[in-house]
């Protein structure tokens, strides 16, 4: 029972661990010369091909019939969650750093919470302690993200030399255009927030997470390919060798566009969009730790203070989202099952005698 109850929590933690490695493998690929727009296109083709057999066979009986309305929703979802958002997101990563981008993504939770309350997907009872915890937790998390982004503080000395040096060669743009990168990051966060909200509505009419993941991958890949062909005419940009570019595409396609997107869809259906976005803060913390200990990136005291505040806010929101009534029902159901099991054993024993 406990494992079933915390299944969404464990899956979202796994998803954030997967996202943590994504930041570094994609940055290494971009530094190697990989075009971000080509990467997004190839990644989602791989993700769609990987998820297609699972979606076709496992959801054959539960997959609703396609309508023009659903196809239009798939198009908009793919635009918000794949082609438009990810193209802005990875270009911003090329201009800034993994730690900065991961920190900014935490604003998605606050934006999604506000939109969910406005659209009545999230209920907030200010007279109930749990309702107040949701509001305070969201504000606290947003405050922690703000500290991580704006306040640096003292630089912590590296205890040892970096284990891995990320290659900085290739035709990569020098990371000095932080303003452009910041604007693109904020724009991608707004688009992602709308995407999470829209998913909740689409899943009610199309409750087939594997199929929806596949549709978004293929449609998003087509949208990204169209845009990339317009802005990138060089044939060499589409040529991928058996190097870091290949592995970043495979990892992003199979693990992120396939497995992680499916996990997020399932958790959105089970717990709502706000629950899913609140776990973005874990990736921020994991990225900062990995960047410091493994890759030798500078770690500031402001990042540590902000991370602690973010964790406090996350726990407040998760506590606020727990429904004590459903918990009591689970306990009563558990007790009833135990009593019924004991009665069955007594009846069998009586029959044997």
Task: Please provide a brief summary of the model.
The protein is mainly α. Helix content is 76%, strand content 1%.
Describe the structure.
This protein is mainly alpha-helical. The chain has one domain (2-322). The protein is 76% helix and 1% strand. Helix 3 (36-58) runs antiparallel to helix 4 (68-95), helix 4 (68-95) packs across helix 9 (209-231) and helix 5 (98-104) packs antiparallel against helix 12 (280-293). The chain is globular. It starts with a helix and ends with a helix.
Q: Helices and strands in order, then pairings?
A:
Elements: H1 2-5, H2 7-31, H3 36-58, H4 68-95, H5 98-104, H6 107-118, H7 129-150, E1 155-156, H8 178-205, H9 209-231, H10 244-271, H11 273-278, H12 280-293, E2 299-300, H13 301-321, H14 324-352
Antiparallel strand pairs: 1-2
**Helical percentage:** over 70%
User: Quick check: average pLDDT?
Assistant: 80
Shape: globular
* N-to-C span: 34 Å
User: Using DSSP, what is the number of strands?
Assistant: 2
List keywords for this structure.
about 350 residues, mainly alpha, about 75% helix, globular, transmembrane transporter activity, WAT1-related protein, EmrE-like, WAT1-related
